[in-house]
Amino acid sequence: MRGLMMEYQLTVPSILRRAETLFGKKEIVSCLPDKTIHRYTYSDFAKRSKKLAVALYELGIREGDRVATLSWNHYQHLEVYFAVPSIGAVVHPLNIRFSPDDLSYIINEAEDKILIVDQVLLPLFEKFKSLVSVSKVIVIPQTQELIPKEYLNYEIVVASGDESLFQPFEGDEYAAAFMCYTSGTTGKPKGILYSHRSILLHAMSSLLGCCDIGITERDVVLPVVPMFHASAWGFPFNCTLVGATQVFPGPHLDAGSLLHLFQTEKVTLTGGVPTVMLSILNKLDSDPHKYKLFLRIIMVGGSAVPRFLVKSFDERYGIKVLHTWGMTEISPLGSSSITTSKLANASKEEQYDHAMKQGMPVPLVEIRGRNEFGFIPWDGVTMGELEVRGPWVASSYYRDTEPSTKFTPDGWLRTGDIVVITEDGFIEIKDRSKDVIKSGGEWISSVALENALMGHPSVLEAAVIAVPNEKWMERPFAYVVPKEGKTISFDDLKEFLADKFAKFWIPEGYAIIEAIPKTSVGKFQKSALREKYNKEHVSV
User: Fold this and answer.
1) Is residue 438 annotated as a catalytic residue, yes or no?
2) How far apart are CA 516 and CA 445, in angstroms?
3) Which domain holds residue 500?
4) Are 328 and 192 a contacting pair, CB within 8 Å?
5) Which of 63, 184, 280, 526 would you label with 536, given CA atoms 20 to 30 Å apart?
6) CA dihedral 139, 143, 149, 154 (to 10 degrees)
């Protein structure tokens, strides 16, 4: 017997319709490349998004066609996010930190029909322009320079659209709406296709109070995470769904610029990778009385959060750092390190220890761990690779012609994260499968060592890699970046770690470097460190 409920399709246009109907007077704020502030309302946004949708249709975009963007976080990019899926097409944000070769590869594989690019990013596009064959290039004007005649002006394109002709996509909620590529750290980037249904369900789940995020109409949200990185963690969709004020920083991601926006726009929630939040903390600490902040939550993801970061923001500024975990393949939110009733009365130090875990899976995401012996017990000790499934978890990669080892025979996603799972279902990532150090038959977590090292008062950043060892096969080696004006003794670092880990975990080798190399999304690029070590230490 079927239930007697309406056949209501979960689609992106329904989010746009709700925002226009209920939150028309709320603001969307953008810091443009020239640092001017642009303000308009959700009503303005909805009108322009519909006009853009009509204009794109008149330029030949049809259901299933891909429209690429090469843009920073700003209001025009948000318009594209909604205009393209609203006519049944697929929006495809390009990672502006990818190499020209990777960008051309991605555009060609995705068969992007139109490219929308920031004027300030035209020099990047010019580097691979000859390698791609998009039918139209639309430039978002941002400087006083004239847009080359072979390109279309975004503002003229928007103005040409007749809003009365807008017909929102009302097709299958399982249709693709958004395309995102992985960062390609272990080979060519791979495409993920998010559906209308997965986007809306992901947005609703991330809004729930049980995730400790709980964005509402009262919030002012500034996503530091770029819109090309897993749809800015879904912020553009969940904020629009509830009418939260959205603040976009454009290309201005230095700590001073972000703190200025936090203060002037009274931002209550932000999110980004730990390295960015570390720079913000250091800027605050350099002049604690310069900024008046209204932040209630800093969401951190992309890599493990150092304990001292959580503790420092809480003790010195009264701001909660919420550790979340996810992947591009998971749209991306998979878990959140919530404060449970069990922890509510625990000591602050216990809560800080707990906050470093990746947390409990968000509603509708299921987890399990597996090692060479089978499924791991939820005992907080036994390590295994994390596997997940859920309504916004990828089931395959775009144009993946060969059977992928990323998916189990029964359809779960293999994350590549080595974890333990506690009895109450909390995930703690010990390492990536490719980064875990196997020394004398024992596993050593590079993540745990890095977090401990970054708790040293003289250490700004630290990354630990596995290096060859004749006796133990592998041993940990630490690359350390000192804080400005600080000096570091390797003996001091060893002593600092001595009471925190078993003796065989302690790195025997250390090196001081100016900066840890990072990927396009701000994660430590350990492959580059391994290459560096091999060049400097391994004789051929």
Assistant:
1) yes
2) 18
3) 435-540
4) yes
5) 184
6) 30
Given 20, 79, 173, 329, the catalytic residue: 329
Assign 540 a pLDDT band (cuts: 50, 70, 90).
Answer: very low
The CA distances from residue 476 to 4, 301, 515, in Å, are: 60, 24, 19
Query: For 491-519, what is each residue's pLDDT tens digit?
Result: 899 999 988 887 888 998 899 999 999 87
Per-residue tokens: 26: 């709320």
Select which of 283, 339, 378, 443 is catalytic: 443
Starting at the edge strand found earlier in the chain, the sheet holding 320-326 runs: 37-41, 27-31, 245-248, 220-223, 269-272, 297-300, 320-326, 333-336, 360-361
Which residue among the candidates 11, 69, 182, 328 is catalytic per the annotation? 182
- 453: domain CATH number? 3.30.300.30
Q: How far apart are CA 305 and CA 313, in angstroms?
A: 12
Would residue 8 count as lying in a domain?
no
374: left (phi over 0), alpha (psi -120 to 50) or beta: left
Q: Considering the domain boundaries, does residue 93 fall inside one?
A: no
Contact 248, 74 (CB under 8 A): yes
- Let me know if 182 is a catalytic residue: yes
Query: Across the chain, which distance is largest between two alpha carbons, in Å?
Result: 74
SS3 466: strand
> What's the rounded Cα separation, in Å, for the pair 273 and 221?
16
The residue annotated as part of the active site, out of 127, 188, 348, 438, is 438
Domain count, the chain: 1
10 Å Cβ neighbour count for 245? Answer: 21
Active-site annotation holds for 519: no
Q: Is residue 518 part of a domain?
A: yes
Cα dihedral sign, 249-252-258-263: negative
pTM higher than 0.70, yes or no?
yes
Where is pLDDT greater, at 436 or 514?
514
Q: Is the pLDDT of residue 144 over 70?
A: yes
pLDDT of residue 291 exceeding 90, the answer is yes
Least confident of 199-208, 368-377, 431-440: 431-440
Question: Using alpha carbons only, what angle is made at residue 52 by residues 48 and 56, rounded to the nearest 5 degrees?
Answer: 175
How much of the chain, in percent, has pLDDT values that exceed 90? 76
Instruction: Answer whether residue 447 is part of any domain.
Output: yes
Mean pLDDT of 462-474: 83
